[in-house]
Amino acid sequence: MSIHYAQTSLVVTRDGSHSLRNELTGEHYHSIFGAFTESKYVFEKMGLLEADQSVAPLRLLEVGVGTGLNLLLALAFARDHCLHLQYTGLEPFPVEPELIAALNYGQFADAAACAWWQSVYSDLLVGHPQPFSNAEVAVVQQPLLQFQATQPFDLVFYDAFSPSSEESMWNDDSIDHVSSLLAPGGRLVTYCIRGYIRRRFMANGLLAEKRPGPPGKREMMVVTKPH
Ligand SMILES: C[S@@+](CC[C@H](N)C(=O)[O-])C[C@H]1O[C@@H](n2cnc3c(N)ncnc32)[C@H](O)[C@@H]1O
């Protein structure tokens, strides 16, 4: 399988945690106000903590695995909350393994999860799912619109690049597709709150609400699918 690695360079964000900058678009993978702070708030606090934790396994889809920072938080959360987690991450343009190894997430996220991620990353990229504690992790090298799921998801981390750099990740086709992947009662979290995106989720019969955002961003969006 040939891998189309992203062209990126390492940056340090305001809370000291690393992020990456895409060399072609200039976009950062996280908020420059703090990669770890943003991920912890948007994806752990507003996503995992508020999701229905009684479902087992909790089926989590991440759109845009990137550095794996959100995954690291999810793995530690699942272990600490005794959740059975099934994580599927989509990533058509993976980060180079050398850069994954250089990230300082072991100082911010769970050190054991971070060491595990660095050691299994290359195997995950070639399609071999890996276990960590009470979680199963799979990475699929496919863009969102090509991804056909065999099961719906209880929680979605929608962490695409911003609409100004990757408009196609936020157009009607993408929003309709990701809406169809959510299970009844499922939850999607994203940092982006543009009105046309919120309206498209609602046109799909979902509830799309603005919530207070992480430092440096006034608001974020939480989407839920009725039962
Ligand atoms: C904002 S970054 C992701 C940050 C990531 N969650 C992290 O913690 O590092 C957006 C990611 O979406 C990926 N991406 C680009 N096009 C995509 C597509 N069509 N489907 C899924 N992911 C895509 C990019 O390669 C990039 O890794």
Structure write-up:
The chain is an alpha/beta fold. It has a single domain, classed as Rossmann fold, CATH 3.40.50.150. The strands form two sheets. Strands 5-6-4-3-7-8-10-9 form an eight-stranded mixed beta sheet. Helix 1 crosses helix 2. The mean pLDDT is 97. Bound molecules: S-adenosylmethionine.
SSE arrangement, N to C: EEHEHEHHEEEHEHEE
The CATH H-level superfamily is: Vaccinia Virus protein VP39
Q: Give the strand order of the largest sheet, numbering strands 1, 2, ... along the chain.
A: 5-6-4-3-7-8-10-9
**What global shape is seen?**
globular
List of distinct ligands in this structure: S-adenosylmethionine
- At CATH level 2, the architecture is 3-Layer(aba) Sandwich
Radius of gyration: 16 Å
Helix share, percent: 25-40%
- The CATH class label is Alpha Beta
